Write a sequence for this structure.
């Protein structure tokens, strides 16, 4: 096959190397690049390089190979925008080792505020990348997920994720506060009915919603004032933690000393405080690992014990009984009621 044959593009303007990158066929890619090295610099219809396509389709081995021979994404066809695309897709695909190399090789990307918001948002929503576990346990879980064709997180991935976060957040934290807040807040949109500005891409609150405690801790460590930030509904991260039943985030309140007493009374836009957040039913998926209404109620009552002392819990119990048609003829349920009373 001649070099000009390798340069041919299909109707979507993809070369054979682009297709190999999308499929993760590293062997075929190596053969083509060895025969025609400049294939790396032939973009697709919208400027997508083979490296970008590999990251977009989540092919870690292919991304590592192509980035290794890309000369730090230099060349006439590369731009700051296209480099930013690759960085964003690497983070979204969990290829944090390459993402770390990119920010070290291309520090100018840290100056792009919109890109930083997207990168931090992807990290905030990837809770699994920061859940540190024993290596033997991870390997057992991964073997199961491989069979189910689910995303497999290696121990190295988790290490690189935390290191990558510390690198970019360390650089962001040295910026002026107004810039930091702009990055964390993200772009706004206008509500159709009221034309009021809302910010749906707030990094901190996306992390709070999914329970990404480690991510939040890293941000607060360098920017403690984040504990006072509120979303469009005037909820703090602790309000969201209570509402979503993320106990580890809520526990952070007890590590900030007397300021806890200033945060807990804060009310949202509907005049609800944290106790109201507890009173609302949690998402069904938060109780999936708890078998039966009795144990589910027991877990819910643990939240009320923090805010509601004494026999005020009985009111909550009776409400739960009514909603879940609690059967007191069952010995287990009756014993649980006696313990509460």
């Amino acid at each position: 096959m001649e070099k000009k044959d390798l340069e041919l593009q299909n109707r979507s303007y993809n070369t054979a190397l682009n297709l190999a990158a999308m499929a993760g066929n590293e062997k075929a890619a190596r053969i083509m690049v060895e025969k025609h090295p400049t294939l790396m610099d032939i973009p697709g219809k919208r400027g997508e390089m083979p490296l970008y396509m590999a990251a977009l389709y989540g092919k870690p081995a292919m991304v590592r190979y192509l980035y290794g021979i890309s000369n730090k994404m230099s060349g006439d066809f590369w731009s700051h925008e296209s480099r930013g695309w690759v960085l964003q897709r690497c983070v979204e695909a969990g290829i944090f080792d390459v993402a770390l190399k990119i920010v070290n090789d291309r520090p100018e990307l840290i100056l792009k505020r919109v890109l930083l918001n997207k990168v931090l948002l992807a990290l905030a929503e990837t809770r699994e990348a920061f859940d540190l576990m024993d290596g033997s346990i991870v390997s057992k879980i991964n073997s199961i997920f491989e069979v189910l064709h689910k995303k497999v997180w290696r121990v190295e991935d988790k290490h690189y994720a935390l290191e990558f976060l510390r690198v970019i957040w360390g650089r962001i934290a040295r910026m002026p506060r107004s810039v930091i807040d702009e990055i964390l807040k993200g772009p706004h949109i206008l509500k159709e009915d009221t034309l009021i500005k809302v910010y749906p891409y707030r990094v901190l609150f996306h992390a709070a919603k999914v329970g990404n405690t480690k991510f939040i801790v890293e941000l607060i460590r360098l920017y403690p004032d984040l504990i006072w930030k509120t979303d469009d509904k005037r909820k703090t991260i602790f309000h969201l933690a209570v509402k979503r039943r993320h106990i580890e985030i809520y526990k952070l309140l007890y590590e900030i000393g007397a300021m806890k007493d200033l945060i807990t009374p804060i009310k949202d836009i509907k005049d609800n405080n944290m106790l109201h957040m507890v009173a609302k039913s949690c998402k069904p998926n938060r109780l999936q690992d708890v078998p039966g209404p009795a144990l589910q109620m027991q877990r819910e009552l643990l939240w009320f014990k923090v805010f509601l002392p004494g026999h005020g819990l009985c009111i909550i119990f009776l409400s739960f009984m009514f909603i879940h048609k609690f059967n007191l003829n069952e010995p287990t349920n009756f014993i649980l009621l006696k313990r509460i009373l």
Notes: Residues 308-341 form one domain. The CA atoms of residues 76 and 255 lie 51 Å apart. The longest strand covers residues 189-190.
